[in-house]
C-alpha cells in the first residue's frame, strides 16, 4: 500500500497523489485474531485493518474469519501521509480476496470512502498516481487518474508532533467568497496539468491555496520556517499534506530535491524527511500458499481473483 498525500495544496478534498513509500500487510487464517508489527495499543479488535476487513465482509455478504495480520509500515503516523487509508484499503482488499469475491478496485474505493468519509486519500492509495475524486449523489465514487511527470520529486517532512484531523477541520471556514472559489478552481485545474507535464514554472504559479492552508498552517509550528527554507533551496511548490502535520515540498529533479531535503533537515530538529516520487501502481496484492501466482494492481482496469482461504495482502515493494 502506498503512502498518499491529499489536497496537493489547491485541490482541497479533491486531489490526492500516491507516493513511493510502501506499507505491506499480510493476512493468514488463524484460530483467533492476532495482529503483529505495530504498537501494542493497536493490536486489539479495534485495529483499523481488522475493523475495515469486518466492514467489507459485511458489505460483501461474506463470513469473517479470525486472521493473523502482520503489518510492516514505514508511513509516518504523525498525520498527512495516508497511514490510516493504507490500513483501511488493506483490510478491504483482504476481505475481497479471502472471501473468493475477487479484487475489485472500484468496489474497494466505494467501501473505503464510506469508512473514511471522503475519497481523497483512499482513491490514490487504490489507483496510484494523481487522482481527482468526488462522491456522486448515489454514493458511488468517481475517480479520474493522471500519471505524474517523472522529473518531479516530493520532499516529505513530518515533524515530531501531530495535528488532529478534527482540529484541522474546525479551523477551515465553512463559507468562502465567490472570488476565493474562482481563484481556487482555476489553480486546481492548472495544478493537475502542471503535475502531469512536470511543469515546475506552472506549479510555482498555481501552488497558492486560499481555502484551507492559511488556517491550518497556524496549527503547524514549523510551517513558516520550512516553507521559507524549501523555497530558498529551490522548491517550486510547498503544501500541507492532507490536514498535516506532514508537509511536502515539490522539486524539479533529484538535485534540487536533495538540496531541499538537506536544508529542511538542518532547519528543524527531529524532522522526518524523505525524497519520494509519485507511485503509478497504487494497491498491489499477491496470493500465497497453494494458490500462489495470483497478483494484481489497483491501477489495472480489471479485477483479479483469489480463492477463499488464500493469504492476501499488499505486496511489499522497495522504494524507488
TrEMBL record:
Q: Where does ATP bind?
A: 76-86
- Which EC class heads this enzyme's classification? transferase
Q: Does the keyword Transit peptide apply?
A: no
Q: Is the keyword Transferase in the record?
A: yes
Where is it mainly found? cytoplasm
Domain GHMP kinase N-terminal as annotated: residue spans: 47-128
Q: Where is the signal peptide?
A: none
Gene3D superfamilies according to UniProt: 3.30.230.10, GHMP kinase, C-terminal domain
Q: In which pathway does it act?
A: Amino-acid biosynthesis; L-threonine biosynthesis; L-threonine from L-aspartate: step 4/5
Q: Which reaction does it catalyse?
A: L-homoserine + ATP = O-phospho-L-homoserine + ADP + H(+)
Q: Where is the composition biased (Low complexity)?
A: 302-320
Q: Where in the cell is it found?
A: Cytoplasm
Domain (GHMP kinase C-terminal) ranges: 191-267
GO MF term list: homoserine kinase activity
Sequence segments annotated as region (Disordered): 289-320
Q: Which PANTHER family match?
A: HOMOSERINE KINASE, HOMOSERINE/4-DIPHOSPHOCYTIDYL-2-C-METHYL-D-ERYTHRITOL KINASE
Tell me its family: Belongs to the GHMP kinase family. Homoserine kinase subfamily.
**Function description:** Catalyzes the ATP-dependent phosphorylation of L-homoserine to L-homoserine phosphate.
Name listed for the protein in its UniProt record: Homoserine kinase
What gene is this protein translated from?
A: thrB
